[in-house]
Structures are given as structure tokens and as C-alpha cells.
Amino acid sequence: MALSACGTTNWGFPYRPDVQQGNWITSEQVAQLQQGMTREQVRFILGTPTLQDIFRSDRWDYPYFLKPGYGEQEERKFTVWFEGDGLVRWEGDEQPDRQPFQKADTGRDNIGAESEGDDNEAAANTEPEAEPAPIPGANSVEPLR
Question: Is the Cβ–Cβ distance between 42 and 60 less than 8 Å?
Fold first, then answer.
């Protein structure tokens, strides 16, 4: 009973924490990159790079490493190059299309889609709900209108 409060499905003894390091970059962020962007614009989109070499200031590296307590480790690399203050190219591994806190698969194909048939007609014919009646004595101050 006491262990049910932990709320995780990754049970393992001994406990091994997940180790996450680097920059999480999504495919949406990569799609926003354009040649000629300034360093500040790139930093706004991708975040501060994990690695900035003082000898090669025109290259920013965005590595990502995840070693889960139990399971396969994951490693991705992404690099951008500048000439002066303008972005000239970028390359790296394929990036995910989700954030790390989002599950990879929800198990539902059409999220938010309603079923066809009578349910749609019933939903179209419903009236908006009325405001709940005030509780006497619950609020002694009259609301502003």
C-alpha cells in the first residue's frame, strides 16, 4: 500500500535514476531554422548550446544523451555553423517531434475527433448550460457587473 503512492510503472530494485544531459531539440525547432539568421535568433529557437568551442566560435554543438535507469540509452547530435553572425548550415541526427515530457504514443488515433452518427447530431442540438444558482450566504459581497 505504501509503495502505491510512488506512481510509476518502472519498478526496479535497486533504484536506478534516469540520467539526461544536453539539449532536447524537436523537429519543429529545426524546421524554423533559415540561412542568414543571427546567432541570437538561433539561440532563441534552439536554446543555448551545450558546447561552444573557443577555438571554433563559428560552430555550436547541441548534443543530447539519455541513459534511463532501465532500458536502452539514447544519443543525438545537432550542429549549426555560422559565418560572421549569419547561420550558413546545420546538420545532425533526426530529432523527435515531441517534448520529453510527452508520451511517445497515446494509443489514440484521432484525439478530439467525435464519433460519427447520432452522437454528432445530439451534440449539435444541445443548449449551453445555465450558470449555477448562487448559494445563499456563501458570498456576502455582490459581484461587480
Answer: yes
d(CA 126, CA 123): 6
The whole-angstrom separation of Cα 39 and Cα 87 is 7
For residue range 78-90, what is the model confidence (pLDDT) as tens digits?
999 999 889 999 9
User: Domain map of the chain by residue range?
Assistant: 16-92
pTM equals: 0.57
Give me the architecture of the 16-92 domain, per CATH.
Answer: 2-Layer Sandwich (3.30)
Measured distance CA(31)–CA(37) in Å, rounded: 13
Closest Cα partner for 92 from 81, 105, 103? 81
Burial of 59 (0-12, 13-18, 19+ CB in 10 A): middle
Query: How far is residue 26's CA from residue 3's CA, in Å, rounded to a whole number?
Result: 35
